[in-house]
Structure formats: C-alpha cells, structure tokens
Amino acid sequence: MSFSQYTKEFSYNLRLAYPVILGMLGHTLIGIVDNFMVGNLGSTELAAVSLGNSFIFIGLSLGIGFSTAITPLIAEADAEKDDKKIRTTFHHGLLLCTILGIAVFVMIVLSKPIMNLMHQPVAVVNMAAPYIDWVAFSLIPVIIFQGYKQFADGLSQTKYPMYAIYLANVVHIFFNYVLIYGVWGFPKLGILGAALGTVISRIMMVVFVHFLLRKNALFKRYFKNFSFNEIRKSILNKIINLGLPSAMQMLFEVTLFTAAIWLSGSLGKNSQAANQIALTLASSTFMVAMGFSVAAMIRVSNAKGLKDFKQMITVARSIFLLTIIVEIIFGIIFVISHNYLPHLFLNMSDSSQVLDNNEIISIASKLLLVAAVFQISDGIQVVVLGALRGLQDVKIPMYITFMAYWMVGFPISFYLGKHTNLGATGIWIGLLAGLSTAAFFLYIRFAGLTRKLTK
After folding, report:
1. Helix (H, G, I), strand (E, B), or coil: what is residue 42?
2. For 267, which DSSP code?
3. CA angle 58–71–210, rounded 5-degree value
4. Residue 55 CB coordination number (10 Å)
5. For residue 65, which of 25, 96, 92, 22 has the smallest C-alpha distance?
6. Shortest CA distance to 104 belongs to which of 75, 148, 141?
7. Region at 133 (left for phi over 0; alpha for psi -120 to 50; beta for the rest)
8. What is the pLDDT of residues 341-376, one digit of tens each?
9. Are the C-beta atoms of residues 286 and 378 closer than 8 Å to each other?
10. Lowest mean pLDDT among 44-53, 210-219, 371-380
C-alpha cells in the first residue's frame, strides 16, 4: 500500500485520540502537581511520594488494564448497532470495576510492610506510609471512573471523560495547594495534604463524568434499568476473560517501572528523586501513545464488528506510523532539554539543598537521554497492544509482555544498576531493553493474526 493511504487516516486518528491523550495527561497532571508542590518541601518528601506512588501505580495499572476490556466489546457492538449489548456490557463492566477498586485498595494497604524489606531510607518509608493509605483509597473512585471512560471510548465519544478529568484537576490543584502549605486557614499537612487533595479530586472525577454522560442524549438510554437481577455470569466471565490478561499486561510493565523506583531507592534518596523526575516526564509523553493505543483499539474493534479486515490493517498501521513520528519528536525534545527539565521539579533557591539538587539534576539528565530512545519502543508496544485488544487477543500478548519485561528487562536493570558504575542509568537501560523486546514480538503477533484474517 502507498504511504498516502496511511497518512490520510492521520486526521481521524488524531480527532479520536486527542481527547484520550489530554485525559491521560490529566491523570498524569495529578502526579506532576504532587511532585512539583511536594518537591518544594525537600528531597526526602519527593522520594516519599515516589515510593508511595510506586505502590499506587501497581493498583492503578490493574484497574486501567482490566477496564480496557469494556472498550472493544462496546466498540464492536456499536459497529453492529446492538444497543442492548452496549448497555449490558456497560452495566456489567461498571459493577466489576467497583468491586476491583475496593479489592485493590485493600490489597495496597495490606502490602505496606513490604517497604521495610526494600532497603529504602527509613525517613522516606515513615513519611510514605500515611500517604499510601489515603491515595490507595482514591483508587476506588478512579477505577470506577475507568468503567465510565471505557464505555464512552467504546462509543468513540472520547471527549467527555477528558472534561471530567480536567474539572477534577482544578479541584486537585486547589486542595493540594491549601492542604500542603496550610494557607487560607487550612492546616499545613505536607505530603499528607497532597494525598487528601488526590482523594477529593478523584471522587469529584466520578461525579463529573456520571453527570456529563447521564445528562447527554447520546448516552442517556444506556443508564436506564440497572438492576442486579439482570447481572449474568456469562457476561461477567466474558469481561473477566478479556480484562484479566489485559490487567496483567499492564501490571507487568508498571511493576518493571516500579522495580526501577525501588532499585533507584536502594542507591539513595537522590537517585530515587532523580528517577521520579525522569519517570514523571517520560510518563507524560507516554500518555500520548496511550491515546493512540485507545484509538487503535476502537478502530480495530469497529472494523472487526464490520468484518472489514483490509481496512483494519490500514488504520492500525496508520496509527503505528503516527505514533513513531510523534515519539521521535518527543525524543528530540528530551535530548535538547535534558539538562534543563529537572530544574522544574526542584527548589533551586534553597541553599540547604544545593548539593542534593546538583546530584539529582546530574542523574536525571542522564536518565532523560535514555528515555529519549525508549520513547519509540514504548510507543510502539502500547499501540500494538491496543490493536491486539481490539482483536480481543489478550492471552498471548500477556505472555509476551511478561517475557519482555521480566525475563529481559529486569535482569538487565538489576545487573547494570547494582553491579556496575552506571547506577540509575543502568536501570533505565534495562527498561529500554524490555520495551524494545515487547514492541518487536507484539508487532509480529499482530502481523500474523491480521495476515490470517485477510486470507
């Protein structure tokens, strides 16, 4: 096929993806605001938030990964014009997300003692513990929100969850500011204030998205007649069979990055703080690829429902190509500004933190150079995963991601980080190796499946 046949799909892909990208950046903005405001308190506080969020990321990955099962089922039903199937999938998916949110909250709170076995600085562990309790609770509303979001995404209405996320960010910034620093009569709570700000904003995020969807004529009919009497085991099992492997795919990647946080923490609080800065920036650009991944999932699911397999391949490849172009641009930005970006997260005017800040900047700038390269691999692997989820192919990709991240990526990270002079940079080289391996084998899987469908 000619290059122009792929590029002519760019416009629709961007229209579909940009609200998802902005929404995912809105999720990331909550973490960026926490890091920015807490970073002004000191490197110990920043490291504590990093350690605490390493636990939260695990729970969040399970919730987001599981909820992605809702989108391809609804997108396929939308292509088939089956409103009953759409409504049923939405109701069953929302119920499962609620149950999962509660389970993840309990799991994370019970796992806190693991921090004492991870060779992290004592001051960081003590500060992270109460932070984890509150932010873990916020996972209940955020996973429920994912049920609403994936439902709207499946109907190609990606902008409404974006609106809810940004309204929630306004709430988050306000409560973070007043509760962290104790202004306007509010108590000064430090990083606990950041945690409470996150809880309040995520509860409001569910309120906002429910109101936006329920009051909209496009969605109103799908909110009617919810009853536990309509819950069917067969539909629950169908969502679970798609959602559980998808959750594990995301879990394998997130736990690899979590392991990088823990390995960095074992090298010292400055390595951990530098890792958090670089990870926050890399996560921001990754959200763009996540948006393209959702677009791939929706469009491949629609084509599957219409049984138009040639068009499926065209739109999938167009999204792959668009992702590569965008991630190369981000990589160039990281290379050009790698010495400057870490300054944005630190209080450079505090003379007592000069030595720590200089070391953090030195480490973080090197990590951003590695991140500039793995942008491409990370983007490819996540959009191909989205396309595979659109095909409802989740089990083999689950095994591929486990192999790539934990049989390739982690051993390299551990060896280079702990047993060479590369330190934190070596840890990130392992991340690059894992992501590149995943991208290669996932694309082979997608190419093989689509070749069979066209025959």
Report:
1. coil
2. H
3. 80
4. 23
5. 96
6. 141
7. alpha
8. 887 777 666 666 677 778 788 888 888 888 888 888
9. yes
10. 44-53
Task: Determine the Cα–Cα distance for residues 106 and 269; give it in Å rounded to an integer.
Answer: 28
What number of helices (H) and strands (E) belong to the chain? 16, 0
Enter the pTM of the model: 0.79
Q: What is the mean pLDDT of residues 233-238?
A: 88
Rounded to 10 degrees, the C-alpha dihedral 342/348/352/353 comes to 0
200-223 as b/e: b if 16+ CB within 10 A: bbbbbbbebbeebbeeeeebeebe
In whole angstroms, give the CA distance from residue 121 to residue 128: 11
Q: In 3D, which of 335, 303, 331 has the Cα closest to residue 316? A: 303
In angstroms, the CA 49 to CA 442 distance is: 33
Helix H or strand E encompassing 120: none
Location of structure tokens 């090197």: 366
Instruction: Determine the average pLDDT of the residues in 61-82.
Output: 86
pLDDT single digits (tens) 74-86: 988 888 888 888 8
Q: Which pLDDT value is given to residue 131?
A: 82
Please write the tens of the pLDDT for every residue from 392-444: 898 999 999 999 999 999 999 999 988 888 888 888 899 999 999 999 999 99
To which H or E segment does residue 346 belong?
A: none
